[in-house]
Specification:
It is a single chain. The chain is of the alpha+beta class. A hairpin with a 4-residue loop joins β17 and β18. It starts with 40 loop residues before the first helix and ends with a helix. The protein is elongated and about 130 Å long. Strands 7-10-13-8-2-18-17 form a seven-stranded antiparallel beta sheet, with no helix packed on it. Strands 3-16-19-20 form a four-stranded antiparallel beta sheet, covered by helices on one side. The chain folds into four domains: 161 residues, no CATH class; 73 residues, no CATH class; 354 residues, C8orf32 fold, CATH 3.10.620.30; 81 residues, no CATH class.
Length: 727
């Protein structure tokens, strides 16, 4: 039964919160959800705080976003103040201005999206901020505040897709707490219970659910496999950059310029006398001298979104003179253009080796965090690129070069067809036929190469009948018999770098290991080349990005197998060039992938339990504790059979008497109070006035008096009901 606000005999609005029956068979007497305005200050404050946190989260993702964010927060606070004080007014002129402002914001969004149609996330964030600021000037009702919460959720979601660091958690965690509290206060506001004088009574209901939900959410997120997502027509990339038309393919590494760029100081480059730069890798240039020494910085140079870890290939060298690597044809390139993304690249294959090699599509998105050279990093065998230039060049060694340098903030995406090599098939590869093809540069070794280097290669590969086993044995020998060390001394003039590494120092860094494998592989008849790039980096499981640091710069070897192509090998201790790259198979990821497969109708739920990492154990424990707490909460909330209480029995007696009076002709309606109904019955049948007055007194005392109802009260109500029934 609902209260009719248009009647003169209804409860006044100021009394309503204090005199609503706690339990009536016909439902609540007063529907507070229908109030024209929202008067709960805690609810409004919580919603405004969630909006502020969402705006700050979005502003933190741009270097120049703080000005926009702070201005937006200031305007939204002004709008919230105006909305509070004018919540009962019609505000027609405000609504007209807001409509005009929203149309202007939408057109500005379209213009910004057309400027960079390949990644509109930041443009969408700007639109959401502007709409929320405008909306804050007109928040009279509860539903308007709920709309603000929805916009806040959309804004934090967009910001989450753009964020690449753990710093986003500093905004997301408090936003999650505040938005949950806002939802709870909105529910309490419906019953006018969100106006408690102290903060703790409002927060107390959320103390257990919020940590519980957070633990469950983190556990689910860490167990989910990382998929490429939907088959999108467009992948993230930066806004189009002005492309110089006369680019001929030169490598631009400001830290290590080419000999031609040194203005007559070419000897410095080949002599390894240029100062070592810890912020840039010397392997991204025309020459790689083995006498360079130094440790690279651990600063993050780029973040990569990829579901499979693999080496991010940069460039390759084919000629070794005993002390340094170079390219015999550095300027022989092929141009690929695309005036609208993507730029399709066809790998320069020597003899159509696609025929025997299985491949898997891999989508990668690179976010450049530090200025780089103009080499485009990607997984092996690129198919297409979403790159912010109209063209790019590919050298004869499979390296991609951009007309502009990779500067901080640049974003580009790559679609690769990564090979999946099977050692069984590689062992059956036919020998390299050098007739008709120029393989000399991939087979040449320095003329002064000591005989003991050749002898060691022959000794290690003794008994091998195919090229794969020779390379595998050489790689295993180097990785197990030599130590990785970045602090080795330089090679003395006149000494061969590989001979010094293998027989004198017996330790070195990746370039020494890779050079030794490449040269020794050539001595036993396997075409090889040295490749430089980055290792996969470290996966941040909360952000989902591979964090690649300057110290992850690396060198490895590629060996050619007819009908299969260039196969990677990495002899450096602690590094593995996977022939068949796949998703990391730690236990928690394996569980998530199996669960996903089971939900899709295939797979099983078998869970290997060996090799648990510390973080996995913590996640499992957190999920287990969360499950136990959830079960306890559900058990406490289970429906229970209650024994009838005296107060409930009194309610039943009152409503039985009232129903009987209605059948006897007394009018009743949704807005009729107990006292008014008693007066109506007394007016029709004066002899029942005394009984109805006493029964109404008992009913009102049951609902509005702190004194409890006892057995004597119920007995009196029964007697009154018998008295009314008899008459």
């Amino acid at each position: 039964m609902r209260l009719d606000l248009s009647r003169s005999d209804t409860l006044s609005d100021d009394r309503a919160p204090h005199c609503v029956p706690r339990s009536t068979p016909l439902g609540g007497w007063y529907d507070f959800g229908m109030l024209p305005t929202e008067d709960s200050r805690p609810f409004r404050i919580a919603v405004q705080l969630s909006v502020i946190l969402a705006i700050l989260a979005a502003a933190s993702l741009e270097d120049d976003g703080w000005t926009r964010g702070l201005v937006a927060i200031g305007l939204s606070l002004v709008g919230a103040w105006i909305s509070w004080h004018r919540r009962g007014a019609k505000n027609g002129w405000i609504k007209l201005g807001l409509a005009i402002g929203m149309m202007a914001a939408f057109w500005r969004f379209l213009g910004e999206a057309m400027y960079n149609p390949y990644d509109t996330r930041l443009s969408l964030a700007h639109l959401l901020i502007e709409l929320q600021v405008l909306h804050s000037f007109d928040l009279p009702r509860r539903k308007d505040l709920y709309y603000s919460m929805v916009v806040s959720m959309a804004l934090i979601s967009v910001a989450a897709t753009v964020s690449r660091t753990m710093g986003f958690g500093a905004w997301f965690v408090p936003w999650t707490v505040v938005i949950l509290i806002s939802a709870g206060l909105g529910h309490l506001a419906r019953f006018r219970e969100a106006e408690a004088p102290r903060l703790w009574p409002l927060i107390r209901p959320f103390v257990v659910p919020i940590p519980l939900m957070a633990l469950v959410a983190v556990g689910i997120w860490m167990a989910l496999p990382r998929y490429d997502g939907l088959r999108l027509q467009s992948l993230p990339m930066s806004v189009r950059l002005p492309t110089p038309p006369g680019f001929t393919g030169q490598i631009n590494n400001p830290a290590y310029p080419s000999p031609a760029q040194l203005s007559g100081q070419a000897g410095l480059m080949r002599g390894g006398k240029l100062p070592f730069n810890p912020n840039a890798y010397y392997g991204f240039s025309y020459n790689l001298d083995l006498n360079y020494r130094g440790k690279l910085d651990d600063a993050i140079v780029m973040r990569v979104r990829s579901r499979i870890p693999t080496y991010w290939r940069g460039m390759a060298f084919d000629h070794f003179d005993g002390g340094s690597w170079s390219m015999t044809q550095p300027d022989k390139t092929q141009r690929y253009s695309g005036y609208s993304p993507p730029i399709v690249v066809h790998p320069a294959l020597a003899d159509g080796h696609n025929e025997l090699t299985a491949r898997r599509e891999l989508i990668q998105t690179f976010y450049i965090e530090q200025d780089q050279s103009n080499l485009i990093f990607a997984a092996q065998e690129v198919e297409s690129l979403f790159f912010p230039t109209t063209y790019l060049l590919e050298d004869r060694y499979g390296g991609l070069r951009s007309p502009v340098q990779l500067s901080k903030g640049m974003v580009y995406s790559v679609v690769s067809q990564i090979p999946r090599y099977d050692p069984m098939f590689l062992r059956r590869a036919r020998p390299v036929i050098t007739t008709g093809l120029n393989w000399r540069t991939y087979m040449d070794v320095p003329q002064q190469l000591p005989d003991r280097v050749r002898g060691l290669a022959t000794q290690v590969t003794a008994g091998s009948t195919n090229a794969y086993d020779r390379m595998d044995k050489l790689s295993h020998y180097l990785s197990t018999q030599y130590r990785y060390n970045l602090d080795i001394p330089t090679v003395k003039p006149g000494h061969d770098a590989i001979d010094e590494f293998l027989f004198v120092q017996k330790e070195g860094y990746c370039e020494q290991f890779a050079t030794a494998l490449a040269v020794m592989g050539r001595t036993v008849g396997v075409p090889t080349r040295l490749v430089t790039g980055y290792t996969p980096g470290t996966l941040n499981r909360l952000t989902g990005y591979w964090e690649v640091r300057g110290s992850d710069a690396h060198g490895w070897v590629e060996a050619y197998f007819p009908a299969f192509g260039w196969v990677p090998f990495d002899p450096s201790p602690g590094f593995v060039a996977t022939l068949n790259p796949d998703v990391p198979l730690d236990p928690l990821q394996r569980l998530g992938r199996r669960l996903a497969g089971w939900l899709m109708g295939f797979g099983d739920l078998a869970l290997p339990v060996g090799g648990l990492h510390v973080w996995a154990v913590v996640a499992y424990l957190g999920m287990g504790i969360s499950a136990v707490v959830a079960a306890l909460l559900l058990w406490r909330q289970r429906p229970r059979r209650r024994t009838p209480q005296w107060a409930d029995r009194l309610d039943q007696l009152y409503w039985r008497a009232r129903l009987q009076a209605r059948r006897q002709g007394t009018s009743d309606s949704d807005g009729t109070t107990p006292r008014t109904f008693a007066d109506r019955v007394a007016a029709q049948r004066p002899e029942t006035a005394d009984a109805w007055a006493k029964l109404t007194d008992l009913f009102e005392r049951r609902h509005y008096s702190p004194d409890p109802i006892g057995a004597d009260d119920v007995d009196r109500a029964k007697a009154l009901l018998r008295q009314l029934a008899g008459r």
